[in-house]
Amino acid sequence: EVQLVESGGGLVQPGGSLRLSCAASGLTFTNYWMSWVRQAPGKGLEWVANIKQDGSEKYYVDSVKGRFTISRDNAKNSLYLEMSSLRAEDTAVYYCATNPIYRDYEDHWGPGTLVTVSS
Amino acid sequence: DIQMTQSPSSLSASVGDRVTISCRASQSIRTFLNWYQQKPGKAPKLLIYGISTLQSGVPSRFSGSGSGTDFTLTISSLQPDDFATYYCQQTSSTPRTFGQGTKLEMK
């Protein structure tokens, strides 16, 4: 059974930094692109970034470009999101999700981790 | 970026009803259209990908259709477990974008 567990969320001041992690199990990690998707309180889903199996390609939504960095460690079956220059509008539950190779959808999702940006 | 617009934003229905949710893309997204179901406090769940292919384990009362820019999610006979929020998503181009969601409530 595929399991994804995010961690690293919490309360951070505007302008601060935070690193999210996602531990994956029950899958061959290198068979998947990996994505981060977020959801502000009471709002809809927003795709944030994704990364190819070998880390050679990364894509971001414009609102986080230059501030967020997605990365992965295939030896540890882990995905990361390094977030800096955080803003109030980055407050959200952050989900990691798998995207099978040669497919164009996110099929497995973690339960999410809440990031709150507030002074 | 490709804009995805769902209608309606909310919908009241009863068990046994046939329900249709629409999703329109701001430009052609070919077959790169997915549907997700989300319940309060839970992660989204993939229902349908590639316009009409049911994800494994999804009941056959769910179906998807459409082409180009106009797509539809249909629930043929609503069950109690189906009351949730539904999102369409395009994966034709980056950034991937979601519709604003359709909240399906019990009448």
Features:
heterodimer; A: 119 residues; 4-stranded antiparallel beta sheet; 11 strands; 52% strand; B: mainly beta; 50% strand; globular
Characterise the protein shown here.
The complex is a heterodimer of chains A (119) and B (107). Chain A is built from no helices and 11 strands. In chain A, the strands form 2 sheets. In chain A, strands 2, 4, 5, 6, 9, 10 and 11 form a 7-stranded mixed beta sheet that branches. In chain A, strands 1-3-8-7 form a 4-stranded antiparallel beta sheet, with no helix packed on it. Chain A is mainly β and 119 residues long. Chain A is globular, with a radius of gyration of 13 Å. The termini of chain A are far apart. Chain B is built from no helices and 11 strands. Chain B has strands at 4-7, 10-13, 19-25, 33-38, 45-49, 53-54, 62-67, 70-75, 85-90, 97-98, 102-106. In chain B, the strands form 2 sheets. In chain B, strands 2, 4, 5, 6, 9, 10 and 11 form a 7-stranded mixed beta sheet that branches. In chain B, strands 1-3-8-7 form a 4-stranded antiparallel beta sheet, with no helix packed on it. Chain B is globular. The model of chain B has no long low-confidence stretch (mean pLDDT 97). Chains A and B meet through strand 5 of A and strand 4, strand 5 and strand 10 of B.
